[in-house]
């Protein structure tokens, strides 16, 4: 072909020397490259665009949004230029070596970018599919990119120095320790990503709590070396991926999937307010719809027991009796069982724990039938609002440390008798006073 072009110029009386022939060949290569570029990026681009409009939106996004088509076209364009260089130019010239090296670098670069687009397309497809949407595959995809990047860099170096890539790879054996040190985080992150995925320990969207890193919120990204958590205050915490394997963390996703969120809170009862129930208190509480069946059944049971053992019930320590604290526990259990916001298929109890300096802890242990944070807090607050309001009906008191108002009231109460004693000790001014000169005149 080259001889044909030289002969064609000779017919017009133009005799080309070597450098002119090379310049003409380069011009032919450039013109061909421009034509191929126009063919791919104008004609074929429009054809593919029309075809993908009729198909699923997914493929259109992968081809154009992820730049797969354009990068693949540039790769093919580089291969065509490389073939033309070998056809049109003498292989013994410096120009041939320079253009071939640049073209090989071009092809390698856009092959790498095409692989990147394919990997990003796989990630896009995974995010769009319901089953794989929350899987931590981002780390795997980044590891694949890193692997192909290393291979591409080795090949580019081999092209520039005109050596075999195997020679460079064999030389890397002596740099293994350095490579392990440089790529420590990616290697650890890749291994951690495999363990997280294989054991299904963490997914995007899970609620993660890791106090050692100040993380408490939703997982928004699981990458090769880092995991990003958006905390509830909208700040972002970045955690090394391998830290999720070496350290402990709490994943609240199980709670979300169960459909119930736990309430576990104590109220502290003043020990001095606990007592046996008298007839008046019994009569008053029997009017409560949640307590009437319990009190009726319990009274029958206790009377039968005491009668069977012939106890002298005039002595308080004899026999069995109902206490206001035990009755409160029964009331709270019935209240929770009838509450519309409490999950009835999960653990539900009101338990008394060991007494402390603050009083007797009475713990409410139940699960709401929603995991939405705001709804959960509203249900929990309503329950304890009610408990604090009805506690006085059982003649019980909530333990509370003295506040400034209590201290001020106590001081005023102690000061009042002292003032009364002082006023009584002082003599009456009118009764004990002697008449003055002015009074004698009157």
Automatic annotation (TrEMBL):
<keyword id="KW-0472">Membrane</keyword>
<dbReference type="GO" id="GO:0071470">
    <property type="term" value="P:cellular response to osmotic stress"/>
</dbReference>
<feature type="transmembrane region" description="Helical">
    <location>
        <begin position="95"/>
        <end position="119"/>
    </location>
</feature>
<comment type="similarity">
    <text>Belongs to the MscS (TC 1.A.23) family.</text>
</comment>
<keyword id="KW-0346">Stress response</keyword>
<dbReference type="InterPro" id="IPR030192">
    <property type="entry name" value="YbdG"/>
</dbReference>
<feature type="domain" description="Mechanosensitive ion channel MscS C-terminal">
    <location>
        <begin position="328"/>
        <end position="395"/>
    </location>
</feature>
<protein>
    <recommendedName>
        <fullName>Mechanosensing system component YbdG</fullName>
    </recommendedName>
</protein>
<feature type="transmembrane region" description="Helical">
    <location>
        <begin position="20"/>
        <end position="40"/>
    </location>
</feature>
<dbReference type="InterPro" id="IPR010920">
    <property type="entry name" value="LSM_dom_sf"/>
</dbReference>
<keyword id="KW-1133">Transmembrane helix</keyword>
<feature type="transmembrane region" description="Helical">
    <location>
        <begin position="167"/>
        <end position="183"/>
    </location>
</feature>
<dbReference type="InterPro" id="IPR006685">
    <property type="entry name" value="MscS_channel_2nd"/>
</dbReference>
<feature type="domain" description="Mechanosensitive ion channel MscS">
    <location>
        <begin position="185"/>
        <end position="253"/>
    </location>
</feature>
<dbReference type="GO" id="GO:0008381">
    <property type="term" value="F:mechanosensitive monoatomic ion channel activity"/>
</dbReference>
<dbReference type="Pfam" id="PF21082">
    <property type="entry name" value="MS_channel_3rd"/>
</dbReference>
<feature type="region of interest" description="Disordered">
    <location>
        <begin position="418"/>
        <end position="442"/>
    </location>
</feature>
<dbReference type="GO" id="GO:0005886">
    <property type="term" value="C:plasma membrane"/>
</dbReference>
<dbReference type="InterPro" id="IPR049278">
    <property type="entry name" value="MS_channel_C"/>
</dbReference>
<keyword id="KW-0997">Cell inner membrane</keyword>
<dbReference type="InterPro" id="IPR023408">
    <property type="entry name" value="MscS_beta-dom_sf"/>
</dbReference>
<feature type="transmembrane region" description="Helical">
    <location>
        <begin position="140"/>
        <end position="161"/>
    </location>
</feature>
<keyword id="KW-0812">Transmembrane</keyword>
<dbReference type="Pfam" id="PF00924">
    <property type="entry name" value="MS_channel_2nd"/>
</dbReference>
<dbReference type="InterPro" id="IPR011066">
    <property type="entry name" value="MscS_channel_C_sf"/>
</dbReference>
<keyword id="KW-1003">Cell membrane</keyword>
<feature type="transmembrane region" description="Helical">
    <location>
        <begin position="68"/>
        <end position="89"/>
    </location>
</feature>
């Amino acid at each position: 072909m080259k001889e044909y072009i030289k002969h064609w110029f000779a017919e017009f009386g133009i005799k080309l020397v070597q450098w002119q022939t090379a310049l003409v060949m380069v011009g032919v290569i450039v013109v061909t490259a421009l034509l191929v570029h126009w063919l791919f990026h104008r004609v074929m681009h429009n054809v593919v665009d029309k075809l993908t409009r009729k198909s699923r939106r997914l493929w259109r996004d992968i081809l154009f949004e992820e730049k797969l088509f354009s990068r693949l076209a540039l790769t093919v364009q580089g291969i065509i230029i490389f073939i033309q260089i070998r056809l049109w130019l003498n292989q013994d010239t410096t120009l041939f070596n320079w253009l071939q090296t640049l073209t090989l670098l071009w092809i390698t670069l856009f092959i790498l970018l095409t692989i990147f687009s394919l990997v990003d397309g796989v990630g896009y497809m995974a995010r769009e599919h319901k089953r794989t949407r929350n899987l931590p595959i981002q780390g795997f995809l980044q590891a694949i990119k890193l692997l192909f990047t290393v291979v591409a860099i080795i090949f580019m170096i081999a092209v520039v120095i005109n050596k075999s890539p195997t020679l460079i790879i064999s030389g890397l054996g002596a740099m293994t320790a350095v490579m392990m040190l440089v790529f420590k985080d990616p290697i650890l992150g890749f291994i951690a990503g495999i363990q997280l995925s294989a054991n299904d320990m963490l997914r995007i969207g899970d609620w993660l709590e890791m106090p050692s890193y100040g993380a408490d919120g939703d997982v928004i990204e699981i990458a090769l070396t880092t995991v990003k958590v958006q905390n509830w205050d909208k700040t972002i915490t970045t955690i090394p991926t391998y830290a999720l394997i070496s350290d402990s963390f709490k994943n609240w996703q199980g709670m979300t999937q169960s459909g119930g969120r736990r309430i576990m809170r104590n109220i502290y009862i003043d020990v001095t307010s606990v007592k046996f129930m008298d007839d008046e208190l019994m009569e008053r509480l029997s009017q409560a719809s949640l307590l009437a069946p319990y009190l009726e059944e319990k009274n029958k049971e206790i009377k039968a027991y005491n009668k069977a053992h012939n106890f002298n019930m005039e002595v308080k320590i004899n026999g069995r009796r109902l206490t206001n604290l035990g009755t409160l526990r029964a009331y709270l259990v019935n209240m929770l069982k009838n509450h519309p916001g409490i999950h009835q298929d999960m653990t539900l109890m009101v338990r008394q724990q060991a007494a402390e300096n603050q009083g007797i802890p009475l713990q409410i242990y139940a699960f709401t039938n929603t995991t939405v944070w705001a709804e959960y807090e509203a249900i929990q607050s309503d329950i304890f609002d009610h408990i604090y309001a009805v506690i006085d009906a059982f003649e019980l008191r909530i333990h509370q440390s003295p506040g400034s108002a209590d201290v001020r009231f106590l001081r005023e109460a102690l000061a009042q008798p002292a003032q009364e004693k002082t006023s009584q000790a002082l003599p009456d001014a009118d009764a004990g006073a002697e008449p003055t000169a002015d009074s004698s005149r009157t």
